[in-house]
Amino acid sequence: MKYAKLKAQPTFNENPFVEQAINDIKVVRKTQVVRPENRDEIQMITSTDGEITGYTAFMRFVELDEERFAKVYLSQFTAFWELTKPAIRVFGYILSILKPKQDEFFLEMDKCLAYTKYTHANSVLSGLAVLVECGIIARSNSHFKYFINPLVVFNGDRVTFAKTYVKKKKDKEKQDRNQLDLFQQEALRLSESPLKLDS
Fold first, then answer.
1. Of residues 115, 60, 57, 63, the one with CA closest to residue 91
2. pLDDT for 56-92, tens place per residue?
3. For labelling, which of 34, 52, 106, 167 has a CA lying 20 to 30 Å from the CA of 11?
4. HSE, side-chain direction, 13 A CA sphere, residue 164
5. Across 111-133, average pLDDT
6. Can you tell me whether residue 90 is helix, strand or coil?
7. Which residues contact 45 (CB under 8 A, 6 or more apart)?
8. What is the mean pLDDT of residues 191-195?
9. Which residues have CB under 8 Å from 115's CB, separation 6+?
10. Dihedral over Cα of 19, 102, 149, 141: its sign
């Protein structure tokens, strides 16, 4: 399969995958109740007159691996089927630099070359082009800044990320409407004020 050069790929101001991600991310809500094996283990908080005023809380500690990780989603795994060797190596580098809860990354060529063990930037650029064409990443308008497709891979909680994105977008739309209203008011004020000519 022949891939287009990286420069031939489109660029974006914002992550082009996010709108689809918001529609496609499936949210499952689970409630977890932690109960002690023995009811006597519940400690009651009592006041000086002997009235029960509440109970102590139970905490559950979960052990986590300290090693950095990113989630690759099985539903989009077919995106990896056509990857070339350079694309796989570059993708490995991307996974190593992905920051939690962020949908973008900056590619530093020297570090990417060191990670992939390539000696020429052309191999990295070729790998990037394949990743873009397979819909795993997208180019931005800024040099060496790329967007990650959160439907394919993400470091962190996609639901929180999607909610934050929607909130930011609503806030921006509200701000844009307010700015437009100010401009409209100013235009209206100018149109209603009498025109003065210098004599």
1. 115
2. 555 555 565 555 677 888 778 888 888 999 999 999 9
3. 167
4. 9
5. 96
6. helix
7. 52, 53, 54, 55, 56
8. 55
9. 89, 92, 93, 96
10. positive
Decide: helix, strand or coil at residue 21. Answer: helix
pTM value > 0.85 = no
Question: For 6, phi and psi rounded to 5 degrees?
Answer: -60, -40
Cβ contact 124:117 at 8 Å: no
Q: What is the enclosing helix (H) or strand (E) of 140?
A: strand 137-140
Cβ atoms 134, 9 nearer than 8 A: no
* pLDDT tens track for 8-58: 899 999 999 988 888 877 766 665 555 555 554 555 555 556 565 555 555
Confidence of residue 163 (pLDDT cuts 50, 70, 90): confident
DSSP per residue over 23-77, as a string? Answer: HHPPP---------SSGGGPPEEE-TTS-EEEE-----------S---EE-GGGG
Amino acid of residue 96: S
Question: What tokens appear for 39 in the block?
Answer: 């009811």
- Contact present, 133 and 11 (Cβ < 8 Å): no
